[in-house]
Amino acid sequence: SSHSHVQQPARFNSPTAMNSLVMNRIRMTACLFLWLGGLFSSYACLAASHVDGLTPEQSARDVKILKRTLLEMHPALTKYRSQADIEAAFMRFEARGNAARSAADMYLAASEMAAAIRCGHTWTNVLNQEGASKSTLLESADKLPFTLMLVANRWLVLASADAAVETGDENLSVNGMKADVMVDAMMPYLRADGSSDGKRLRQLSHNRGDFSQMDIIWPLLSPPRNGRYNVDIRRAVGTREALSVAATTLAQRDRALAAQGIKPASEAWQFRIDGNTAFMTLPTFSFYNSDFDWAGFIDSAFAELETARTPHLVIDIRANEGGDGAIGGKILEHLIAKPLQFTSDQSTSAYERAPYIVAKYMDTWDYSFFDRTGKVEKISSGTAAGKYRFLPNAKGLQTINPVAKPYQGKTYLLIGAENSSATFQFARLAKQSGSATLVGQATGGNLRGLNGGQLAWVVLPNSGVAVDVPLLAATYTAQTPDASVIPDIQVKPSFEASAAGRDMEMEAVKRLTD
Length: 514
Known about the structure:
Layout: E1 2-7, E2 31-35, E3 38-42, H1 56-73, H2 83-98, H3 103-116, H4 131-139, E4 146-151, E5 154-160, E6 170-174, E7 177-178, H5 179-186, H6 197-202, H7 213-216, H8 218-221, E8 228-234, E9 240-246, H9 250-259, E10 269-274, E11 277-281, H10 294-308, E12 312-316, H11 325-335, E13 340-344, E14 346-349, H12 356-359, E15 362-363, E16 376-378, E17 388-390, E18 396-400, E19 410-415, H13 422-433, E20 437-440, E21 451-459, E22 466-474, E23 489-490, H14 495-499, H15 504-513
């Protein structure tokens, strides 16, 4: 027997309506140059080739504002870095930022600074950029005419607006830079929590709900030459070909792909029962400004499972970065057999009242975030000593209680590096409770807890560069490992399998359920 239903959620229409988990992501650093067709990596910056637009005085002011904002407002600069590491990052940012003569230069400098903190919610969010910074990133004709997925450090072409490049081709190099060198160049700009490098690498692919850093960082590090990119392509049959392809804009490429019938991946929730296995696909937990009844969807799906007595359930959250943490809790109510307790304490704050000299350059959706008067107490010991505890968020022990009739079958949770906020928490609790077998790759996020809960972004007045800054941090101890959630059954990504359209995680589950 086989049946299914799909629910399409309404989407939010404003970046300010989102929590810290879900505002589209981006980040960058390192510069390269070519000499006589040979490849040399250098940290001496290609971005300097951009048109001048900032005076030394303007750049210095922007640098001073961002540095002070991070020092005054960020709750966890040293969660993953030593004090010496952070000081070195600030020194590098000051040198690079003061030398910036364009919004693009400042964007790279600020992105590298934000990424150096190793906090997945501290980053140069493209949607919050203003003026020249935003137009440079989103409107310039400097994008590759095809989309890519990074698999095992190799670039698989997903779709192409240029007839000379085909779906399934391997992109071996761009402007003479091989795939591994390209990845190394972009790594210092990519955001993630602590050691979660899989999350950093995931941002380079186009098959995700957010911008690919290949469209944001790469054109700043290695721009097209005379409007064209030189690429080296290996065809699916194994032959190689050197090509010159015209750079394009995001809008032009999207239109060309849409004309081929290629659409962005759907964020609709789906549920279907196929024989002895049910499949629940949840691409997002973000429903701000939406009337989608996610709780009703979950209850209805589990009611169907009960009626059909389906012995296996596969929950797929691989494409889901996060959103509303209550959704994972709602699902777990149907999976656990006894109450599940966990600690939730995202309460560490760097301030009681945000200094006006900083706050005047910041924006958010709730300005009460800037004044915690009467709601904080000084922290005297532990990893957050000297900071403040925001009492309304100092919740301590939380409990998820099971429903009257929990699901009795076997549950498999498909996870991966995209899971870094609410879906990281869901994966962590599913593994902690033993209520699901986790299949896939290590998540994003970190066991030391996420920075977020409340968020603002500072907009540098001269360049228009904006940096998201989380305003609260989770409590942790010095013994808490810098690690993410590791699946029970690890599936190693394969370029050949991806090129053939195989779903290796689903194949692994099928072997377990047959």
